[in-house]
Write a structure and sequence with these properties.
The chain has no helices and eleven strands. The protein has 124 residues and is mostly beta strands. Strand 4 and strand 5 form a beta hairpin. The strands form two sheets. Strands 2, 4, 5, 6, 9, 10 and 11 form a seven-stranded mixed sheet that branches. A four-stranded antiparallel sheet has the order 1-3-8-7, with no helix packed on it. The chain is 0% helix and 48% strand.
Length: 124
């Protein structure tokens, strides 16, 4: 069992930056692929970024490519999402998720564990 806790969300002006963190419990964190998803009010859950267990592979949605960076520190059981050049359309609740396969995926059904989410609001 893995528990995930996101932090780092908040209110920021357009063009600003935030770094989200996702702290995981459990000794098997380093074997899990990790993903970030987001959900805006009235919209479906959307893939943002993912990273393999070794961090050798990263994967981004087209809408965030070049602005967001996913990384992980297995020694700290933490995955990060650095978000730069934020836009109002990035406003959403951001969730981290863990996949036992170790393979990053854009499909939310491939993830086994989910955090509670952290709110990101970008003002124009």
């Amino acid at each position: 069992q893995v528990q995930l806790v996101e932090s780092g969300g908040g209110l920021v002006q357009a063009g600003g930056s935030l770094r989200l963190s996702c702290a995981a419990s459990g000794r098997t964190f380093s074997s899990y692929a990790m993903g970030w998803f987001r959900q805006a009010p009235g919209k479906e859950r959307e893939f943002v970024a993912a990273i393999s267990w070794s961090a050798a592979i990263t994967y981004y949605a087209d809408s965030v490519k070049g602005r967001f960076t996913v990384s992980r520190d297995n020694a700290k059981n933490t995955v990060y999402l650095q978000m730069n050049s934020l836009k109002p359309e990035d406003t959403a609740v951001y969730y981290c998720a863990a996949s036992k396969t170790g393979v990053p995926s854009s499909r939310w059904r491939n993830y086994d564990y989910w955090g509670q989410g952290t709110q990101v609001t970008v003002s124009s």
